Amino acid sequence: MAIIEPIIGRSIKRKMGGMRGKKMPFIAGHKLLYTCNLRCDMCPFWRRKDERLLSIDEEIMMMDSLASAGVSFMGFEGGEPLLRNDLEDILRESHRRFHTSLVTNGWLLKNRASSIAKYLDYLFVSIDGLKETHDKQRGVPGSFEHALEGIEEAKKYVQVAISTTITTYNMNEITKVVELAKDLGVGINVQVSYDYSTANNLSPEKKALYDVLLSLKKMKEDGYPIVNSKEYFDTLISSWYYGIKWACKPWSTVNIDPQGRIVMPCYVLNEYAGSSKVWETDIVRLWNTYDWSQYESCNKCSLSCYLEPSIFSWKKLSMVNERIIGSIANYISSML
Ligand code: SF4
Ligand code: SF4
């Protein structure tokens, strides 16, 4: 319980700061490395060479800078984070400071689940389809079985959700993945693939995606364990098909590359290129001098780490219930 109070306290403080017109990031995403043991068609990251990775001391410096800038939620990803032997040490430090989550492709999860789970509040495991589709999209046979085995083990220790990237390969199978999540007793978060110049372009035609988004929204309303809010689907549908723009607030999330550099202005624009090191940057100053207004009408991606905080409103009761009260209740129950 003791850790909850500082997290909520920081969030409220940040909210108040925002009300005074100050911009502060409250979610951080950090790629621990680009190297990966899978070869997803739509992914540019496994194709990049890693330079020297951050030491544990540098990871701590990065976390301290982010905490001082107002960050309350930290999400680790890659590449494949479980390829790092010091992952437990990094997660332990993060869990002392932040609500902590991790995304893995699940290949190496079964044997590490118990040792990493104690430092996690939420674990996301990528599953993009049933066996054949998943293995095709992920580029390595056997990846579906490994992910499934990993989920079965990890859910004994921590709250787990499937993370699904919707592409031309799997768009007609997405509802089956939602059924799978329900059968496994885990959540599922979806987002539409974004076309990077250095990967294969698999993002589906918007027209073809319409029925899929409507089906997902209906499943959400019917109580399937979809982590995205109902408003997430409403917003995508309004923006992509009816031209009603949502105001992106990319400053709500700060992304950090494997060398500890801030990715500006967001995860996808500039193809995830890092700039200055986190611990050498006055983040609050940068956040409040940078011209974010040009990105407000961007609407290019559907990444939930940007879209969800951008559309969150204290006036939308269902969002407050699900995002604040629900997550606090989940958090407390996970501590009991
Ligand atoms: S598992 Fe993740 S990092 Fe690895 S290739 Fe696939 S999308 Fe990229
Ligand atoms: S909508 Fe545009 S500015 Fe906002 S996160 Fe996506 S790509 Fe970046």
From TrEMBL:
CDD domains per record: Radical_SAM (cd01335)
Gene Ontology MF, one: metal ion binding
UniProt KW keywords: Iron, Iron-sulfur, Metal-binding, S-adenosyl-L-methionine
Gene Ontology process terms (BP): heme biosynthetic process
Superkingdom of source: Archaea
UniProt entry tagged with the keyword Cytoplasm: no
InterPro entries reported in the protein's UniProt record: Aldolase_TIM (IPR013785), DUF3463 (IPR022563), Radical_SAM_PqqE_MftC-like (IPR050377), rSAM (IPR007197), rSAM_PTO1314 (IPR023863), rSAM_sf (IPR058240)
Record-given protein name: Molybdopterin cofactor biosynthetic protein
UniProt source species: Thermoplasma volcanium (strain ATCC 51530 / DSM 4299 / JCM 9571 / NBRC 15438 / GSS1)
Organismal lineage: Archaea, Methanobacteriati, Thermoplasmatota, Thermoplasmata, Thermoplasmatales
